[in-house]
Amino acid sequence: MPSEFQLISQYFHRQRQDDSVILGIGDDAALLQIPEKEVLVATTDTFIVGRHCPERTSAYAIGHKALAVNLSDLAAMGARPRWVLLAISLPDSNEDFLREFSAGLFALADEHGVTVVGGDTTKGALSITITALGTVPRQQALTRHGAQVGDGIYVSGTVGDAGLGLQVALGKTVTLTTEQAAYCQARLDFPQPRLSLGLALRGLASACLDISDGLAQDLGHILQLSNVGADLALDQLPLSSPLKTLPPADTWQLALAAGDDYELCFTLSDENFAKLVAVDVPMTRIGTVSQALGLRLFYQGQPQDIDMTGYQHF
Amino acid sequence: MPSEFQLISQYFHRQRQDDSVILGIGDDAALLQIPEKEVLVATTDTFIVGRHCPERTSAYAIGHKALAVNLSDLAAMGARPRWVLLAISLPDSNEDFLREFSAGLFALADEHGVTVVGGDTTKGALSITITALGTVPRQQALTRHGAQVGDGIYVSGTVGDAGLGLQVALGKTVTLTTEQAAYCQARLDFPQPRLSLGLALRGLASACLDISDGLAQDLGHILQLSNVGADLALDQLPLSSPLKTLPPADTWQLALAAGDDYELCFTLSDENFAKLVAVDVPMTRIGTVSQALGLRLFYQGQPQDIDMTGYQHF
User: Fold this and answer.
1) Which of B60, B120, B236, B267 could staple B104 via S-S, CB 3.0–4.6 A?
2) Co-location of B226 and B112 in the same domain
3) What are φ and ψ of residue B152, in 5° steps?
């Protein structure tokens, strides 16, 4: 069986031209050059198969998604992603898994110019913890606490697709075409971190985060930390065609509470909206920041009462 | 059962005065200020109970050691430790464990001025992955590849104690007094990252690393990356009194191959040795860097042949 050093070397020690990496994998720690006048942005997330994705998820998708959820956190801060550290526990030295996993991970890393600069492989229950490091000019970082009364509330892409994809994966009865089911599963397995949008929002959005636990719960963090409330128009929620096939109550539940979409939710003044450049993902205004605390939902102007409990880890 | 947010808030969200932390726990990622003219040093290590420590290890010791092994990597780079991100998987929301674990972790973090700036709690098999971040002036970082022929080879503290502590913990027959057994178990459970020594070696040591997998295997990394060899004098190995009670062959095996001591091993010219300031841990010269590749062992001037295989993770 190959040793830890062979595993690291074979699957994770790729040469990549990156002047910011003074020293990468192969020493006690990596040495990394932060661009002048920028600050470090750091986040870590653990990915467990059967918990963060269905058991049947391919190793390639696991590699993609374990990295994507971390890059999504950097996107939400307006950071440029630069480096990742990868800690992986495996029950055994499964080379098929490692080959596919690393292919999925490096495809996404390469797409966004991210270098793997360190890691640790351990024998244990399958679990992946990635730490993603990026940089941003200090004054342009996006946080959760700056939403202002009157700002528009926006989301990127569409919401609820990953939740519907999970229902498909778990074999729950949903009446979708084969194409629609495949689309939703792809949204679940291959979330796209909205890094270009995060960069475009730098210095413009008053607050921003990524939707991991459900739009309502995640937006709630912005509202709480900004000490404001919100009015949301359910008829404005950006929905894919598979989601529109469901009864409205199911649609709203998925869109508001299912999470795992890794779209960005952000607040923006009308003045700053006008300054925003187009990026590779659509964005939709779904509501307005209000002085009255709490989150109020409307459909065709009428108040609605919906259970919006997001994902609970314990 | 408390939610993920309550758990994080209750045990890991401590206020600490640290101007370098622009934004800590509570947003998508931390925002961190790197000191001017310094570079980032980053390392990650997973800690699994039953693998990296005996099953009976206290939660307090697990918190200490999971952090210590990461800070030890920063010490080996000559870095000043600054921030950590903590990813913890727990089978259930065990508050007794979390209270003791966080007490052990924060005691060590506070001792070295380290702030916990982010984390993730997940339901899963017990596993802790810590990413430690530090900084160092670029030209003063300690690496593994600069050892020069003629340099002295040094280790800090004593070697082999943790290996002997593991034998005690596993109930293997060893003839130690109660005090000696307790000393070795403490060395196993509470390794001290040699951060002061790492700072003192900045710009002086030609190569440095920490001993995690065994002195012989770890020194081998320095030799390989520096393209040199070494002559070691077994009679010069710094040994604690418990280790000296064993037959010489057992002593050498533990000192050279058991690992887990988290002492520093480094190479230093005689000229730079004279410039070294005293720190809180003794250091001992155990050999000399040679042009002839490979590692040669001597006892009272006579060549010795000893199995020096270090820890294999798979």
Assistant:
1) B60
2) no
3) -75, 150
Nearest 5°: CA angle at B254, between B248 and B258?
165
What's the domain range around A274?
A: 152-304
* Segment among A181-195, A300-314, B224-238 with least mean pLDDT: A300-314
The ipTM of this complex is: 0.92
Give the CA count within 13 Å in the CB-facing half-sphere of A38: 20
Q: How far apart are CA A245 and CA A216, in angstroms?
A: 22
B120: nearest CA partner in chain A: A45
Q: For residues B205 and B296, state if they share a domain.
A: yes
Give the minimum alpha-carbon distance from B41 to chain A in angstroms, rounded to a whole number: 5
Q: Answer whether residue B249 shows pLDDT above 90.
A: no
Element (H, E) at A135: strand A127-137
| Best A3, A11, A44, A94 residue to mutate vs chain B (most B CBs within 10 Å) | A44
Q: Please say whether the beta carbons of B14 and B116 come within 8 A.
A: yes
The alpha carbon of residue A306 is apart from the nearest alpha carbon of chain B, in Å, by 21
Q: Does residue B72 share a domain with residue B36?
A: yes
Helix or strand (DSSP H, E) at A61? helix A59-76
For residue A9, is it within any domain? yes
- Asked if the structure places residue B288 within a domain, the reply is yes
State the helix-helix crossing angle for B178-189 and B161-169, rounded to 10 degrees.
110
Pairing of strands B294-299, B229-233: parallel
Contact A35, B30 (CB under 8 A): no
Point out the domain boundary residue: B85, B119, B140: B140
Contact between A261 and A157 (Cβ < 8 Å): yes
Instruction: Provide DSSP, A193-252.
Output: --HHHHHHHTTT-SEEEE-SS-HHHHHHHHHHHHT-EEEEEGGGS---HHHHTS-HHHHH
Residues B283-309 pLDDT 10s: 999 999 999 999 999 999 999 987 666
Please tell me whether residues A181 and A122 are part of one structural domain.
no
Nearest to residue A195, comparing CAs of A78, A53, A282? A78
Query: Which residues in chain B have their CB less than 8 angstroms from residue A32's CB?
Result: 39-42
**Averaged pLDDT of chain B:** 92
The amino acid sitting at B240 is: S
Q: For residue B38, is it within any domain?
A: yes
Q: CB within 8 A of B157, min separation 6: which ones?
A: B192, B194, B238, B261, B263, B281, B282
Residue type, A146: G
Select from A34, A73, A132 the Cβ nearest to the Cβ of B40: A34
Residue B298's domain is classified under what CATH number?
A: 3.90.650.10
> How many Å apart are CA A272 and CA B254, to the nearest integer?
65
Report CB contact under 8 Å: B29, A7.
no
